[in-house]
Amino acid sequence: MTTETLNARSITTKANVYFDGKCVSHSFVTAEGENKSVGVVLPAELTFGTAAPEIMECVAGSCEYQLEEGGAWLPCTAGQSFKIAGNAKFNIRVKDAFHYICHYG
Amino acid sequence: MTTETLNARSITTKANVYFDGKCVSHSFVTAEGENKSVGVVLPAELTFGTAAPEIMECVAGSCEYQLEEGGAWLPCTAGQSFKIAGNAKFNIRVKDAFHYICHYG
């Protein structure tokens, strides 16, 4: 099941722009008071780092991700999620677009 | 004064991607029930079309915009807005990034 909308309390108006715009997200606070972001990764192969643990939930499009250098590349499509540890890096490659919700903690 | 956050009711998780990602926005519904979007235009010169009238409010960065072909290019920076009629086109050019709230109607 794909999460098309989320209840929100407030939204940060300035976008987060990473990798020259290959990834753009907007941060918001849910109705329950949790910090999350919604974003999109455009065609690219990128390495992201985490501070807190994150769950990336795909809401449209798809990606492949690699949690450990040299490890398996796994697919993630709409309705699927993957979890990344805190203080970790992961690789992601996108052919078309990967629309996601980022859940923290 | 710059609008850094907005009260929201719900957010659409899938981004709107225009011009191969030169413009990315996320749609949301305000606490008052109005449809708006927050977005960013990256370095580019683009022509946008409107359906309903729009007010583009700059929340960070800047752009220059031209409401009529051959007309003046006007600057818009954080805290400023410009209004576009419905069923109209406008040109925008961005050197760094133009972060905006789009108000409809």
Please explain how this structure is put together:
- Two copies of one chain form a homodimer.
- The first copy, chain A, has about 100 residues and is an all-beta fold.
- Chain A has a single domain, classed as Jelly Rolls, CATH 2.60.120.
- The first copy, chain A, is about 0% helix and about 65% strand.
- Chain A contains no helices and ten strands.
- In chain A, strands 1, 2, 3, 4, 5, 6, 7, 8, 9 and 10 form a ten-stranded antiparallel beta sheet that branches.
- In chain A, β2 (about 15-20) and β3 form a beta hairpin.
- The model of chain A has no long low-confidence stretch (mean pLDDT about 95).
Specify the CATH architecture of chain A. Sandwich
User: CATH topology of chain A, which one?
Assistant: Jelly Rolls
Helix segment tally of chain A: 0
Classify the oligomer. homodimer
End-to-end separation of chain A in angstroms reads: 22 Å
Described by the principal axes of the CA atoms, the overall outline of chain A is: globular
Class of chain A, according to the CATH hierarchy?
A: Mainly Beta
Question: What class would the helix/strand composition of chain A place it in?
Answer: mainly beta
Spatial extent as radius of gyration of chain A: 13 Å
